[in-house]
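Problem: given the chain below (457 residues), write out its structure.
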Amino acid sequence: MVNKDGRLVTEWRLEGDWQNKTVLQWGFRDICCEGYMGSIDNCQPQCDNCPANSYCAAPDRCECNSGYEYIGVRIDSVVCAASCQSCGRNTHCVEPERCLCDEGYVRSSAENSADCEPVCVQACPEFSHCGRPNTCVCNAGYTAHENGTCGPMCSSDCGPHGYCRAPGKCGCLFGYHYETPGSSQCVAKCDEKCERNANCVEPNRCECKAGYNLTEQASGGLSCEPICGTTCINARCSAPETCTCHKGYKRVNKYHCIPICHHCNGGDCVAPDNCTCWEGFLPKFETKKIKRKDVIIQTCHPDKNVLIPPWNCITRCLCLQKLEPEREGEPKTENTTHSKLQSVSNNTARCVDACDKGLKKSKDPACLNTKLCECNQLSWNLICHGKSKSPRYTRFSCSVLAPSPDLSPKTRSLKKDTPVQWEDYARGVLLAMFITLVFIGSGIFFASRRHFPPVER
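Solution.
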């Protein structure tokens, strides 16, 4: 049966009892069942120390009160906790359907909110919030700094001149900017544009690019000029280690340009269209069409009065070398057209062999055909040319002479540094002519005496 408190109790039972008296009597009474106590109208189950918020539902069996739920056993005792269906965050259920904020939390000010918010005694810095009681936590997208503040986080590096201005967004420091839209690197900004050979390396400060040097101009200004490790010849240093030829010049190598002369034959091109004739050559000026324009050009032609047979230059020559034309600014170098080497007095020279040298045809197919050459008696250079109407002249010089203590007039003519030998040769010729004339005169005299009779006196 159920008592007035709504608790279940067992029914009562009937028991008999007897007493040993003189007269035997029988009687009946109502008592509670085993494990229960109380009056016959209110038999209650007996339990040892049911915990709070529970009741003894049966002998030695406790159950949670209505609005409470069993959460386990703690120290050999059943634990019943209040049950709430709508408690918010940071709260706990103290009674059925009655929630209170946890320690250090207060009810949220948000409308219709069942949550409780933590309380921080000191105000949290910018970009942070009170995440736990008296503990500030940085907002999402921000990170804590050592000085206790919160700053934005960026997934990519903003560079040495940039900073993270917002979560996932970079910005440039003062004096720097993004050079192009969409760029992720900040570069220095100069209010006045740097010249083309300089870069803006710091705010409002230009610096010459690599390979350029700051140079003071004749006008007094400064500019970045390219650097060439070797001096440009007949050219200007237009870029680092790059020379650009002046007008009227052509490139020989990376740093050297030579002048251009049109039809400079028999002379040296010393400047654009400026030809200096070789010794023994005479200048001649002609007008020719060059790129549809009449241009006066200078050519050189050999002076026939100074040319003698080629054997005068090659008879005693052991090493004949080709002379290259001299040009403005060009270092003088020796060059040859033949690789035959001859060793004379422990010196090795690159020599050109003459085909008809010594009246014997050379076996070398690259020999020099001296039938197209003449000897210049002013310079003692061998002047050779081609078979065309406008032959190209080439000079050869004898660099090694064969030693000969007793020179005939013919071979002595090779010594350039002893012009008196030509005088001896001329004296010999005059003497021979004189003797010939004497013989001729004597013959005429005796012949006339034989054909004509003597005159009487």
